Amino acid sequence: MNITWPGFNVYAYTGGKTFNPEQPTVVFIHGVLCDHSVWVLQSRYLAHHGWNVLAIDLPGHARSQGTAAASVQEAADQIHAMLDAAGLAQVALVGHSWGSLIALETAARLKQRATHLALIGAAFPMPVAAPLLEASLADPHKAIAMINVFSRATLAAPPSAMGPGTWVHGASTALNRRVLASNREVNLLHRGFTACDNYDQGLQAMANLTCPVLFINGALDQMTPPKTTQALIEQGHQSGKKVSVDTVPMGHHQMNESPEETLQALRQFLR
Amino acid sequence: MPGYADPHFDTLSLHAGAGPDPATGARAVPIHLSTSFVFESSEHAASLFNLERAGHVYSRISNPTTAVFEQRIAALEGGIGAIATASGQAALHLSVATLMGAGSHIVSSSALYGGSHNLLHYTLRRFGIETTFVKPGDIAAWRAAIRPNTKLLFGESVGNPGLDVLDIPTISHIAHDHGVPLLVDATLSTPYLMKPLSLGADLVYHSATKFLSGHGTVIGGVVVDGGSFDWEASGKFPELSEPYEGFHNMVFTEESTVGAFLLRARREGLRDFGACLSPHSAWLILQGMETLSLRMDRHLANTEKVVAFLAAHPLVSRVGHPLMPDHPSHALAQKLLKGGARGAGSVFSFDIKGSRTQGRTFIEALKIFSHLANVGDSKSLVIHPASTTHFRMSDEALAQAGIGAGTIRLSVGLEDADDLIDDLKRALKAAEKAAEKTTPSQGAA
Predict the structure, then answer these.
(1) pLDDT over 80 (residue B354)
(2) How many C-beta neighbours within 10 Å does residue A188 have?
(3) Number of domains comprising chain A
(4) Where are the alpha helices (DSSP H) in A11-156?
(5) The CATH number of the domain where A263 resides is what?
(6) pLDDT tens per residue, chain A (271 residues)?
(7) Whether CATH 3.30.360.10 fits B293-442
(8) Any residues with CB less than 8 A from the CB of B314 and at least 6 apart, and which?
(9) Positive/negative CA dihedral, B192, B197, B199, B205
(10) How far are the Cα atoms of B116, B135, B357, B392 from residue B407, in angstroms, in the given order?
(11) What pLDDT does B441 receive?
């Protein structure tokens, strides 16, 4: 479905179901150079099990119109406005990588409107290594190759988003290329990485949350290793939040290298 | 396998898609000879059927052993995933049937395996799909043949048996300019000698019966999606970009931005047409793939020696391998194939001077080369295409495919090259002697 904003549309995958106002809503927010399709298994499942699903393409990405946000805060403003435009009183938020920072910042702004926050492959701070940041500007396709090498944890992923026979590494690379090509005005890779690198409000956002938080870390994640979530987890504990941590046995492609474990963690959390 | 670089070809040939079996510790890929897989609950069953969860249900749709083969070939080709099929022909049919229906049109290279030519020219026409054949090197003809209802451009990476090398970068540009994908049959080149997806192709398929399995023991095929073609932007593929009533009105391009083709090919094509690969066959193909590069190097080394021998033999009028500087694809092969023209592979044709009787005598005198209808075996093979693999083709179509009445096709195997040359030498001698016995009425037909 498309959510109409003043002047443009944002695309949201609904898991094959129409919106039901009687049901709670969960919003999925993807990471850099990705789109809604990274969530297809988890979002389609939840859509058929009692949830309205909005797996969005961030503004300026893939099917969504609008301007790609240059900061986590700007992206959170966009999501906030989108939820208002859609008339959603309360939502659960799920984000991956860059999308986890956007979800965190959005949840902090929504306060009681946010019912749950699931952060997958999160880190704070989320610095981007200088060679990767430079490559994202000078040679985005080289940077895409680097991302996918660092994100992969296995050469033998279980059946994944496109079913058995999916080569997750190739699928992720192809998606990154497609999303990069979807915006001819903005280098989405460099803009997203810069936003991650510059974000410094994570601890404050965590302190401002009012909802429970789930971290889903990849045990073999080289992009955002589990230890890089510690600052957020400690802040959550210190500020009295209900924080839980789940670790899946893969890398940064949690949703596609560990689709079942990621789904089970989300199911438990969203009950 | 976390790391700092992409694994290389041989590592992927051995490891892509499979690690030690978590259930038993088996290091080799287990053969899952099970039609069906137990559901954890009714809810689990329903979610598998509705594509909310990924897993195996029934081996016509997917199977754990077959999935290893699919992941492995996708990794080697640089694709996003693959679907294994009962044969190479089934892979071609699945590709076509997923993308189009009656009223559609294909533009194809004329330099094709005879079976592919049959499917396109005769069988698909019966179902309302027309094909226009063009010489692979005639770039203007490719462009001119495209119609408003054209849905696919198709050719072989290295044409069988003339070894016309497909100019994939150029043909793919033409395809994309017209909003259609390029499908390449890469059977003869294998991913070791050429990666069509990296050159601009959108879909690649193999007869895995040939070099991938490599031992003449199994029939199988596979189609790989590069994930690069934008089906929605093209506007020509409602099969992928509009609700499909046959699967809960699923819109495949929404479900997967890059994998819509694979989703529909599996969920409709394997489900309804049913040309799936047996897990046992998948396992045999995997065994072959583990040594693909080693075998291909030996195939090429032997071929270079055999080509040099034949080119120097007085009874041979033509050797149709791009290693020959006068081969029409010599320059293109140098550019597009691993190692240059030698990378055009080990299946090629040559012409014997003289009569059909001499040609028959030659084939029957061979002792190491086996006279049969296959290529890409570890054992050397020989056949007379005009009377066998391509016999349903008209003279005109044969000429377009570069096949004459005296053309003989070799598939050079892994034996000692000196023994292969001795075998050819002896058979050519027999053919020479046959000329002495040939009466005028038997000559040059």
Answers:
(1) no
(2) 24
(3) 1
(4) 40-47, 72-86, 98-110, 130-138, 140-151
(5) 3.40.50.1820
(6) 877 766 779 999 999 999 998 999 999 999 999 999 999 999 999 999 999 999 999 999 999 999 999 999 999 999 999 999 889 999 999 999 999 999 999 999 999 999 999 999 999 999 999 999 999 999 999 999 999 999 999 999 998 888 899 999 999 999 999 999 999 999 999 999 999 999 999 999 999 999 999 999 999 999 999 999 999 999 999 999 999 999 999 999 999 999 999 999 999 999 8
(7) no
(8) none
(9) positive
(10) 20, 19, 13, 16
(11) 41
Active-site residue, from B210, B295, B298, B342: B210
Q: Counting Cβ atoms within 10 Å, is residue B316 exposed (0-12), middle (13-18) or buried (19+)?
A: middle
- Token pair 């979807």 in the structure block, residue: A182
Residue B387: both structure tokens together: 């009377």
Catalytic status, residue B210:
yes
**pLDDT tens figures, B315-330:** 999 999 999 999 999 9
A167 with B226: Cβ contact below 8 A: no
Residues in chain B with CB shorter than 8 Å from the CB of A164 are 54-56, 62-64, 66-67, 70
**A55 is in which domain, residue-wise?**
2-270
Cβ contacts (< 8 Å) between B5 and chain A: which residues? 149
B143 is catalytic: no
With H, G, I as helix, E, B as strand and everything else as coil, classify residue A11: strand
For residue B324 the two structure tokens come to: 């020959």
A93 touches chain B (CB under 8 A): no
Chain A contact for B53 (CB, 8 A cutoff): yes
**Residue among A131, A218, A124, A134 nearest A168 (CA):** A218
CATH code 3.40.640.10 region(s) in chain B: 9-288
Please provide the DSSP assignment of A44-74 as one string. Answer: HHHHTTT-EEEEEPPTTSTT--SPPPSSHHH
pLDDT at A217: 97
Helix (H, G, I), strand (E, B) or coil at B320: strand
Please give the residue of chain A at the shortest CA–CA distance from B55: A159
What's the rounded Cα separation, in Å, for the pair B179 and B174? 9
Task: Give this complex's ipTM.
Answer: 0.96
Structure tokens at B330: 């010599």
B113 annotated active-site: yes
At a CB cut-off of 8 Å and minimum separation 6, what does B444 contact?
B354, B355
Distance between first and last Cα of chain B: 62
Question: Is B4 considered catalytic here?
Answer: no
What is the fold, at CATH topology level, of the domain defined by B9-288? Aspartate Aminotransferase; domain 2 (3.40.640)
A238: number of Cβ within 10 Å: 11
Beta-carbon neighbour count of residue B14 at 10 Å?
Answer: 16
Is residue A154 within 8 A of residue A261, CB to CB? The reply is: no
Query: A185 exposed, middle or buried (CB, 10 Å; 0-12, 13-18, 19+)?
Result: exposed
